[in-house]
Amino acid sequence: MPPPPSVSEDVRVTDLPAGGRNPIGVALGLLGDEWTLLILRHALQGVRLYGGWMRELPISNAVLTGRLGRLTELGLLDRVAYQRRPERFEYRLTRRGRGVWPILLGIWSWELSWVPRYTEALPGMRHQVCGELFSPVLVCGACGEPVGPRNLVGGFGPSGTWERSMPSATTRRRSSGAQRAGFFPQTTALVGNRWSCALLGAAFQGTRRFSDFERQLSAPPVMVADRLRTFADLDVMTPDYRLTAKGLAFFPVVVHTMDWAQTWFRSPEGPAMVYTHRTCGHPFEPRYRCSVCAVRLRGGAIDRVPG
């Protein structure tokens, strides 16, 4: 068994075992789970108490306890006593936990723009700075220019292989209860399966042929065919395996997930993914700006507007 991850207290980065899952694989294993995303969404809205999540979500005690424990173990939440007699605890977001807001914002925006049907109305977004309804625009952190997948060059770094970048096969991905909670159903179809994660990443890196998907992912042909069929049914990929406009629009979620993963987790061999912005030549760091006022977005400056 590999040693458990250790946290470097000086920089609060989790050191991963050599040769194991790289930061991308760890992040996808965590954030590809619907319950985890739901818990984090409510945490960012201010929920801290166990009972608060139980009231908000159709979740069992066992599942909530397990997910909160995992989020605490990986440093996204701090379990803090707020009462001694009887002893009671709350779960506070850490900097690492608050850092997932661009990922959730990207999912929110993508589903709002591209998925017309919901079991519950998805709220719109209002930017507190300009007071307007907006969409987040992905930009380069160095030069501020808008960025799409074709504006970047690069790929796998020293720890970046397909095998190491995939979430563990034992990671639980799907949950009918979470789906009934009304959270972003098409997003979980894209990232809620280990093969879907890898195939989507390969597509963004330019893979276009069935045989190439099969070879790069070392995946069973039946699984590749099933995932490609699912992507086509969702209209994120064409029948000839090219990303559609809807598929390309998911790019901000992908790059913010990679950025968050490599900010907080570290493989000893080096980065899993390395990208450079073609326009300015700087290492790419994803940021969002408001589509209306062009001010850089901050997590605490966005309001939900009922649909």
Automatic annotation (TrEMBL):
It comes from the Bacteria. Residues 22-119, 181-269 form the HTH hxlR-type domain. The keyword NAD does not apply. The keyword Lipoprotein does not apply. GO terms for molecular function: DNA binding. Transmembrane segments: none annotated. Keywords: DNA-binding, Transcription, Transcription regulation. InterPro entries: HTH_HxlR (IPR002577), WH-like_DNA-bd_sf (IPR036388), WH_DNA-bd_sf (IPR036390). It holds the Pfam family HxlR. SUPFAM superfamilies: Winged helix' DNA-binding domain. PROSITE patterns: HTH_HXLR. This is HxlR family transcriptional regulator. It comes from Umezawaea tangerina. The lineage of its organism: Bacteria, Bacillati, Actinomycetota, Actinomycetes, Pseudonocardiales.
